[in-house]
Specification:
The complex is a heterodimer of chains A (about 650) and B (about 110). Chain A has 25 helices and 2 strands. Chain A is mainly alpha-helical. Chain B is an all-alpha fold and about 110 residues long. Chain B has one domain (about 5-110): Helix Hairpins (Orthogonal Bundle). Chain B is built from 4 helices and no strands. The longest helix of chain B is centred in the C-terminal third of the chain and has 31 residues, at about 65-95. The N and C termini of chain B lie far apart (about 55 Å). Classes of the chains: A mainly alpha (about 650), B mainly alpha (about 110). Chains A and B meet through α25 of A and α1 of B.
Chain lengths: ~650, ~110
C-alpha cells in the first residue's frame, strides 16, 4: 500500500495506451470494443488516482517528486521528466479522470451514430486529451507542464474540428488553436525567463520551503517576478479563455457536446487556474500581477455573463457561462483565495459537465436542434435530464446548499476583504448567472413545445449510458460543496482547505490576513444567496411562458445578442489588416521579391552559361591563348599584390 | 656577364615560343616552339645556378655543378617527350594527311 504512489506513471500511461490502440487500429475495432478500451483505461486511471488520493490524504504525507529520466540537459540546465505528487495534483487527477470517465461513458451512447472508424478516432482523441491533461497536472516542472499544455491545445483543435467536413467547424477549430497559441507564446517566454533567471523550472527547486529559490525571495514586486508572472498569466488567459482571448471558447461549441463538456468546461480550461495555483508563491510575491489577474477575472466574469443573457443557442449560453465562471476563479486567484479558486474548479467541473451533458441529451432528443427558441416543454418528456439540469442550474446559480454556493461564496468573501468593489461586481455577476441559467431552463424545459410536430413525436429520454453520468454528476453537484463548509458554520468544516493547505502554506504566510467577522460573513452570504434566488425566480417565471417573437431586438439587447460585437471588432482590427498584409506579402514580397530573387538567380546562371559556353569552340589555339592570358593575369596580380 | 642578360635572353626565347604556339597552326612548328620555351627555362636554371653558387664554388666544387646536371636530366626527359610528341604528330598525319591543328577540333562535338 505504501508504494502505490510509485504507480503514478500508470495514470497518464493508460490513456496513452488507449489512444494508441484506438488510434492505430481504428479501422479494425468495432464500436463496443472501442468503447470498452476508451472508457476502461480512464476508469483504471481513476481507480489508481483514487488509491493515490487516499495515500496522499494520510497525515504526514509530504510532496514527492518522482523522476523518470533526463528530459533535457544542456550546459547547467538539467530538466528531468518527473511527476509531482502532492495534494494539488492529486485533486486534479481525481477531477480529470473522474469527470473524464463519466464523459467517456456518456460519449459511448452519444456518438453511436458515427461510423466505426470515426467512433474510434473520437475516442482516441479523447484519450489523448486525458493523457495530455494528466501530463500537464502531473509534470514536476514547467516544461513538462508545457508539453501537456500544448497537448490539450492540440486535442482541443482535433476535437472541435472532429466533423472536419464542415468549414465552419474547421474555422472554429483553427480559431481555438491560434488563440491558444497567442497565450502559449507568453507561457513559453515566461519559462525562458525563468530558466534564464533561476536556472531551473522544477517546482521542487523553486518552491520548496527549505531552500526553494522563490521561497528565499522576500521582496515584493521585483521586476523579474512581475514579468514572469504576467507572461505566465498570458498563457492562462489563452488557455482559460479570459478577456481578451476568450472568443475561441464559444466557437469551440462546434465540437460534439461531450467534448464541450470535457474540454471546454470541466478540465482543459482549468489548466490556467491550475498553473497559477501551482505557482501561487510567485504570484503572491508580485501583488501587481495579482491585481491584474483579479481585474481581468472579474471583468471577464461580468462581461461574459452579460453576453450569456441574450444567447439563444443552448450550448452558447453554457459556453459563455463557462467563460464567466472561469473569470470567478481568476478573481479568486487574484485576491489570494487559492483554495477557493481550486474549490470552484472542482464544483464547476461537476455542475458544468452536468449542464453540458444535459444539453447534449436535449440536443440528442431534439435531433440536433440547438436553438432554445424552438424548444420548450421538454421537461415532460425528458424527466431525468430535466431534474438533473435543474440541479445543475441551482448549483451554478449559487443557491445554498448546493455545491456552487460554497465555492463561489468563498471567492466572493475573499474578494470582499480585498476590495468591496470587487465584491459588489462579483455579486452582480452571480445574479446575472442565476438569471441566464434559469432563462435557459425555463425556455428549454417549461412552457409549450415550439418545435415541429415531427420533432415532438421523436422526443424521448436518453439511454442509460447518458442518464447515469447525469445522475452521478447531479449527485456530485449537490454534495460536492460539502467538502468546503465555511468555518463559521462548522468547525474544521473546510476539509478541502485543510487538505490543500501544504500547497498554499507559504503564500498564506505572506498574504495579509483579512479576518472578517462571522456576522459580516453571514451577511455577505445571505445577500448573495437571496439575490441569486430572486434572479432565478424572476428569470424562471418570466421565461417559462416564453413566446417566440419575430421582431428584432433593438438597442442594448441587440448589442448583447451580438456579443458586444467583439468578434466583429477583432475581425476589423486584427484579422482583416492581417489578412491584407498577408495578401500583400503573398503578392508583392513573395511573388516579385523572393520568387523573383530565386528565379532570377536561376535565369542569370542559365543565361550566363549559355554565353560562356561559346568560349569552348574547339580551337586549340584559343585554349592556349586563354591559358596564357590567365597566367599573365596571375602574374600581374602577383606583382601588384606585393 | 651580368645575370640580367641571361634573363633577357631567356625571356625573349620564351616569348617567341609563346607567340609561336599562339599564332601558328602547323603542329610541328608549335611543337618546336614548346621546346623553345622549355629550353629557355633550362637556360634560366643554369644561369641562376651559376649566379647563386659562384661564391660557394671555391669551397664546395661539387655543389656548383648540381643544377647543371639537373638541366641534363630535364633534357633527357624532354627528348623522351619529343619522341612521344612526334609519334603523335606522325599518327595524326597518317590519319588526316595534314599537320594543321585546327583539324583536331573534332573533340568539340
Amino acid at each position: 500500500m505504501t508504494n502505490i504512489i510509485h504507480l503514478i506513471y500508470l495514470v497518464p500511461l493508460l490513456p496513452l495506451i488507449g489512444f494508441l490502440i484506438n488510434g492505430l487500429a481504428r479501422k479494425l475495432l468495432s464500436r463496443p470494443v472501442v468503447s470498452v478500451i476508451g472508457s476502461g483505461v480512464i476508469l483504471a486511471s481513476f481507480v489508481i488516482s483514487l488509491l493515490i488520493f487516499f495515500q496522499v490524504r494520510q497525515d504526514g504525507f509530504t510532496a514527492q517528486t518522482i523522476s523518470y529520466f533526463d528530459f533535457l540537459s544542456a550546459g547547467k540546465i538539467k530538466i528531468n521528466f518527473a511527476f509531482q505528487v502532492d495534494q494539488l495534483s492529486t485533486l486534479f487527477l481525481l477531477i480529470i479522470t473522474g469527470v473524464g470517465f463519466l464523459i467517456h461513458l456518456y460519449s459511448t451512447s452519444y456518438m453511436h451514430e458515427e461510423t466505426a472508424p470515426g467512433f474510434a478516432r473520437y475516442f482516441s482523441y479523447l484519450n489523448l486529451f486525458v493523457f495530455s491533461m494528466l501530463l500537464l497536472v502531473l509534470g514536476a516542472n514547467y516544461l513538462i507542464m508545457f508539453i501537456g499544455w500544448e497537448g490539450v491545445g492540440l486535442c482541443s483543435y482535433l476535437l472541435i474540428g472532429y466533423w472536419f467536413k464542415n468549414t465552419i467547424y474547421n474555422n472554429a477549430a483553427k480559431k481555438a488553436f491560434i488563440m491558444n497559441r497567442i497565450g502559449d507564446f507568453g507561457f513559453l517566454l515566461g519559462i525562458f525567463w525563468m530558466i534564464n533567471t533561476f536556472g531551473t523550472v522544477s517546482y521542487h527547486d523553486l518552491f520548496n520551503p527549505q531552500n526553494g529559490i522563490i521561497s528565499s525571495i522576500s521582496t515584493l514586486n521585483s521586476k523579474t517576478l512581475v514579468g514572469i508572472t504576467l507572461l505566465l498569466f498570458l498563457g492562462a488567459i489563452g488557455k482559460s479563455a479570459q478577456i481578451p482571448l476568450y472568443t475561441w471558447l464559444p466557437d469551440a461549441m462546434a465540437g460534439p457536446t461531450p467534448v464541450s463538456a470535457l474540454i471546454h468546461a470541466a478540465t482543459m480550461v482549468t489548466a490556467g487556474i491550475y498553473m497559477i495555483a501551482r505557482s501561487n508563491l510567485m504570484y503572491t510575491l508580485s501583488p501587481i500581477t495579482m491585481s491584474v489577474v483579479a481585474i481581468i477575472g472579474l471583468s471577464t466574469a461580468i462581461f461574459a455573463a452579460t453576453i450569456a443573457l441574450k444567447q439563444n443557442d443552448i450550448k452558447k449560453v453554457l459556453a459563455y457561462s463557462t467563460v464567466s465562471q472561469l473569470g470567478y476563479m481568476f478573481l479568486g486567484l487574484g485576491v489570494g483565495a487559492y483554495t477557493g479558486a481550486v474549490f470552484h474548479v472542482m464544483t464547476h467541473a461537476f455542475f458544468k459537465a452536468l449542464l453540458f451533458l444535459g444539453a447534449g441529451s436535449v440536443i440528442h432528443a431534439m435531433g440536433g436542434e440547438q436553438d432554445i427558441r424552438k424548444m420548450g416543454g421538454l421537461g415532460k418528456h425528458l424527466r431525468t435530464t430535466y431534474i438533473t439540469f435543474f440541479i445543475g442550474c441551482i448549483a451554478i446559480a449559487g443557491i445554498p446548499p448546493f455545491s456552487g454556493f460554497f465555492s463561489k461564496d468563498e471567492i466572493l468573501t475573499a474578494a470582499y476583504s480585498n476590495n468591496t468593489l470587487f465584491y459588489i461586481i462579483g455579486v452582480l455577476g452571480s445574479m446575472l448567472t442565476a438569471f441566464y441559467m434559469f432563462r435557459l431552463l425555463g425556455m428549454t424545459f417549461n412552457g409549450k413545445f415550439r418545435g415541429t410536430a415531427e420533432q415532438e413525436h421523436h422526443l424521448h429520454e436518453s439511454p442509460p449510458a447518458i442518464a447515469i453520468p447525469l445522475i452521478v454528476l447531479a449527485f456530485l453537484s449537490i454534495v460536492g460543496g460539502l467538502v468546503g463548509i465555511p468555518e463559521i458554520f462548522m468547525h474544521d468544516g473546510h476539509r478541502l482547505a485543510a487538505f490543500l493547505s501544504p500547497v498554499f502554506a507559504q503564500s498564506a504566510g505572506i498574504l495579509a490576513k483579512h479576518e472578517s467577522s462571522a456576522q459580516n460573513e453571514i451577511l455577505l452570504m445571505t445577500i448573495s444567496s437571496v439575490l441569486a434566488v430572486i434572479a432565478s425566480l424572476w428569470a424562471w417565471t418570466k421565461f417559462r411562458k416564453y413566446k417566440p417573437t419575430v421582431d428584432e431586438s433593438t438597442g442594448f439587447a441587440k448589442v448583447l445578442e451580438n456579443k458586444w460585437y467583439v468578434d466583429e471588432i477583432y475581425d476589423t482590427v486584427i484579422v482583416r489588416p492581417f489578412r491584407s498584409l498577408s495578401v500583400f506579402f503573398n503578392n508583392v514580397i513573395e511573388r516579385s521579391g523572393i520568387d523573383g530573387l530565386v528565379n532570377g538567380v536561376g535565369k542569370g546562371i542559365n543565361y550566363g552559361s549559355r554565353q560562356i559556353r561559346l568560349l569552348q569552340n574547339g580551337q586549340v589555339g584559343n585554349y592556349i591563348l586563354m591559358m596564357v592570358v590567365g597566367i599573365l593575369i596571375l602574374f600581374i596580380i602577383q606583382m601588384f599584390a606585393k | 656577364m651580368e645575370i640580367k642578360w641571361y634573363i633577357f635572353l631567356s625571356l625573349a626565347l620564351f616569348c617567341i615560343g609563346i607567340v609561336g604556339v599562339l599564332t601558328r597552326r602547323n603542329a610541328i612548328i608549335i611543337f618546336m616552339c614548346i621546346e623553345l620555351m622549355l629550353n629557355s627555362v633550362n637556360l634560366l636554371l643554369v644561369a641562376f645556378s651559376k649566379m647563386h653558387l659562384s661564391g660557394v664554388a671555391a669551397q664546395f666544387p661539387t655543389l656548383a655543378s648540381d643544377a647543371q646536371i639537373f638541366v641534363f636530366f630535364i633534357m633527357v626527359v624532354a627528348a623522351a617527350e619529343v619522341s612521344v610528341g612526334l609519334a603523335i604528330i606522325i599518327m595524326m598525319y597518317r590519319n588526316t594527311h595534314s599537320v594543321d591543328i585546327n583539324f583536331l577540333n573534332r573533340l568539340k562535338n
